[in-house]
Amino acid sequence: MKKRGITEFQVLSEIIRKQPHIKQKEIAKNLGITIQAVSEHIRNLIKEGYIKTGGRGEYRVTEKGVRRLKEWLSEMNKYLEEVKISIYRYKDVWPAIADEDLKEGDTVYLYMKKGLLHASKEEKGKAKAKVVEDAKKGEDVSVSEIEGIIEINKGEVIIFKIPPKIKGGSKSVNYKIIEEKLEEFKDKDYVVATMGTVGYVVAKKLGLNPDIRFGTLQGIVRATEKGCNVLAFITGGMTERIIKKLDEHKITYTVIDVYRE
């Protein structure tokens, strides 16, 4: 988001907080900018149709303005998450999962797997670090003196649209389609998410243990941001809610209807 966009976001936020009566002088004081700058931003916001004025210092945010505020908030949240990740890179000590037995002083490579940081003597990433303590394979281990960038590529989502109970539920699922997709992902890291009782049952019938069952919408987004691919078993009409959320966060997804008529 450009500096001008951030300031206009702040001006629009001030207006929606205190509409309709808010003085430009008050906005300028709250944001630490000049009244002239506030006036310029308000003219631009009116021109864009984000606010309307009734005169005498009355400003109201339009429906278009509310939509733009939501878009800005989404962009800002994404930006802040990226900043947080960058800040965490500079912690003195990081916890990771040991891929093999490690000794204090060992040099290891760091990489992400299923949303968790792993440490390995094999070259599995560009970031390197020093082991702070002895650890057995599979244990949590502390690492420090991190060099390089820990690569996190956003994951993708495969949505299996599961028929609701009114259409037969788990008994009306074409399991062959799902098994073929699972075969494609057998060498990839993925987590399993379910939404709805039937979706959960289908996953269990396939021998899968759901990683995400509650807060599924946010859980899927967070998993992809951590670099995980997600296989989501979503019951019926709940699919639309998932798709809307993924579109908002610009996450790649594929929808597969597994209803067997």
Automatic annotation (TrEMBL):
InterPro entries the UniProt entry points to: DUF7839, HTH_CRP, UCP_HTH_arc, WH-like_DNA-bd_sf, WH_DNA-bd_sf
Domain HTH crp-type: 14-63
Matches recorded under Pfam families: DUF7839, HTH_24
Example GO BP: regulation of DNA-templated transcription
SUPFAM superfamilies: Winged helix' DNA-binding domain (SSF46785)
Gene Ontology terms for molecular function: DNA binding
Domain of life: Archaea
Name under which the protein is recorded: Transcriptional regulator, MarR family
Species assigned in the record: Methanocaldococcus infernus (strain DSM 11812 / JCM 15783 / ME)
